[in-house]
Amino acid sequence: MVESFNGSFRDECLNVNWFLSLDDAGEKIEAWRIEYNEWRPHSSVDNMTPREFARMFAAKKVRDAA
Length: 66
Hints:
The radius of gyration is 16 Å and the shape is elongated. It is built from 3 helices and no strands. The longest helix has 18 residues, at 22-39. The chain is mostly helical.
């Protein structure tokens, strides 16, 4: 799992950006992190975005509690 993340981070963020300073690196990496954690589909959750998966999980939890 960690190796998959590291590969994605390198391929999708580090290899495609030119960092001009530490602040610039922080901003670009943070933007990538938000996209990765909220908007990018993940095969581990049936190709849903983490946001979609969280919504589905919360709705299921409410249904199961009722």
